[in-house]
Amino acid sequence: MRNPLAQKVVEIKPSGIRKFFDIVSEMKDAISLGVGEPDFDTPWHIRDEGIYSLEKGRTHYTSNAGLVELRQEICNYLKRSQGLTYDPKGEVLITVGGSEAIDVGLRAMCDPGDEVLIPQPSYVSYEPCAVLAGAVPVIIDLKAENEFRLTAAELEEAITNRTKILILPFPNNPTGAIMEKKDLEAIAEVIIKHDIYVMSDEIYAELTYKEKHVSIATLPGMQERTILINGFSKAYAMTGWRLGYACGPKEILTQMTKIHQFAIMCAPTTSQCAAVEALKNGDDDVAAMREEYNQRRRFLLNAFREMGLDCFEPYGAFYVFPCIKEFGMTSEEFATRFLEEEKVAVVPGTAFGDSGEGFLRISYAYSIEKLREAMSRMKRFVEKLRAEKSA
Amino acid sequence: MGIREELLKIIERNSRIDLKELAVLLGAQEIDVVNELQKLEEEGIICGYHTMINWEKTSVERVTALIEVRVTPQRGQGFDNIAERIYNYPEVQSVYLISGGYDLMVILDGKTLREVSTFVTDKLSTLDTVLSTATHFILKKYKDHGTIFGTKPEDERETFTP
Question: pTM of the predicted model, to two decimals?
Answer without folding.
Answer: 0.90
